[in-house]
Amino acid sequence: MLSPSSRLTFLLFVSTFFFACNSLGQHPEEGGILEDISNEVLAKELMDKALILDVRTPEETQLGIIEGATIINFYDDDFEAKIQLMEKSKPIVVYCASGGRSSQAASILAEQGFMEVYNLEGGLYGWQNEGWPVTQSLNDLGSSAITKEEVMTLVQESNALLIDFYAPWCAPCKAMAPIIDDIEKKYGESIHVERVDVAANPELGKTFNVSSIPVFAIYREGKEVWRNNGLTEKSILVDEIKKALE
Q1: What count of other Cβ atoms lies within 10 Å of the Cβ of residue 212?
Q2: Same domain (yes/no): 188, 240
């Protein structure tokens, strides 16, 4: 039979063990989730409802990405600023080449208030080794419908021009697409709206100093009069268009 002091020690051990087990993968102070997941869980349970974040370098992403992924290089100096553009209330799955960088990135996301964060075990190597698909490499996306020379001509000759610099795999870009469509419908007669895929035309990104996406820029008679990076409220875009047209 245990002595009173031994029983107390045992109860403390059990309660500590129980708390630790139930806290696994949780952020008690935030009520959030931080867990490793398998390829099957991503493919069958999270692919259609989670944001997917690829934290590899541009050179690595040339080899292919998981469909729908947003690409933000973990080694970028402004990595933490860029991830703030992503919606914190949605589940987010992070991956890299083999799982190391993505594990670190997942911890940063959790610290910054993302409520449901998952690290893909084995990274893209593991994903491909199990036969799950990747999209075309960025080199195979094909050329944009508009060239650098055509964009420069638009800037110089348009009375007013709004350019949406985007990439097809960028989640914030996709979120902004309906807003840009609506603006084009309502204000298209007054301002030319052009979409530029900087993934297909990286030289255009360099020419227009686009280091992250989406970027929205307004030009009036050959001069840039306004620019904003990241998710932008429709009301702000409309106000800036009206100012440019005054």
Answers
A1: 19
A2: yes
